[in-house]
Amino acid sequence: MTNTQYAIRNTVNDTVWQGSELANNYLTGVRGAIPLAQTQMDVMLRLIRWSQEAVGAAAALAVLDLGCGDGILGQAVLDQYPQAHGVFADFSAPMLDAAAKRLAGYGGRVSLVEVDYGNRDWRPNLVSQSPNLPVSHLFNVIVSGFSIHHQPDGRKRTLYAELYDLLTPGGIFVNVEHVASRSKWGEMLFEEAFVDAMVAYHRQNGNGEPREQIAYELYHRPDKAANILAPVETQCDWLREIGFIHVDCYLKYFELAVFAGIKPS
Question: Which domains does the chain have, with CATH numbers?
Answer without folding.
Answer: 3-182+220-262 (3.40.50.150)
